[in-house]
Specification:
The chain has five helices and five strands; from the N terminus they run βααβαβαββα. By secondary structure, the chain is of the alpha/beta class. GO terms for molecular function: pyrimidine-specific mismatch base pair DNA N-glycosylase activity; uracil DNA N-glycosylase activity.
C-alpha cells in the first residue's frame, strides 16, 4: 500500500499517458468536492481560460473533465482537503502537497507541470520570489510553469489576462513538440 497522500473520494486526479500539461490546482473548493469535478464553481475561470488559450477546441464543462487526457491535459491538486478558500490551508499541508505533486510528476512524466496559484506554489516549494510564468527549476523531469489562480476571488487576473498567460504556456508546449 502506498503512503502517498491521495485526492479525496469523489475528486480523483484526471490523468492519462503522454500528458503535455498537468495542471495542479491548490485544493478542491467545497462545490468541486461535492460534485466530484475540478474547478466546478460557476465563477471559476479555469475552463474558459483553457478554451480561450487554445488548449481545447471548445469550452468544456467541469462535468467533461475526463475528456482532458485526449487533449494531452490532466488535473491534480496540491492538497486534497476541500475548503471554502485556499487561505484556510496550512503551510504544512502545502509543503506535503508539493512532495505529492513531485511524486505524481515523477510517475506520470508530463512535459509541463502548471501550478495554478502563485501564492500556493511559493508556500509548497519554498520559492518566495516565484512569479507567474515559466520557472527555472523542474518538477521531477517536467518543466514547470506557475499560472494565476483562476478563482473568481482572484481580482488581479480577469479572464482575458488569464487566457493570455495560459496561451503563452500552450505556445511553449507546441513549440517544444
Amino acid at each position: 500500500m502506498s503512503s502517498e497522500p491521495t485526492t479525496p473520494p469523489g475528486l480523483p486526479d484526471v490523468l492519462g499517458p503522454g500528458l503535455d500539461v498537468l495542471f495542479c490546482g491548490i485544493n478542491p473548493g467545497l462545490m468541486s468536492a461535492a460534485k466530484g469535478q475540478h474547478f466546478a464553481r460557476p465563477g471559476n475561470r479555469f475552463w474558459p481560460a483553457l478554451h480561450l488559450s487554445g488548449f481545447t477546441p471548445r469550452l468544456l464543462t467541469p462535468a467533461e473533465q475526463d475528456e482532458l487526457p485526449r487533449y494531452g491535459l490532466g488535473i491534480t491538486n496540491l492538497v486534497a482537503r476541500p475548503t471554502a478558500r485556499a487561505d484556510e490551508l496550512t503551510a504544512e499541508e502545502l509543503r506535503a502537497g508539493g512532495a505529492r505533486l513531485t511524486s505524481v510528476a515523477r510517475r506520470h512524466r508530463p512535459k509541463v507541470v502548471a501550478v495554478v496559484g502563485v501564492t500556493a506554489y511559493r508556500a509548497a516549494f519554498g520559492r518566495k520570489a516565484a512569479a507567474i510564468g515559466p520557472q527555472d527549476e523542474t518538477i521531477a523531469s517536467s518543466r514547470l510553469w506557475v499560472l494565476p489562480n483562476p478563482s473568481g476571488l482572484n481580482a488581479h487576473y480577469q479572464l482575458p489576462a488569464l487566457a493570455e498567460v495560459f496561451g503563452r504556456l500552450r505556445l511553449e508546449v507546441a513549440q517544444a513538440d
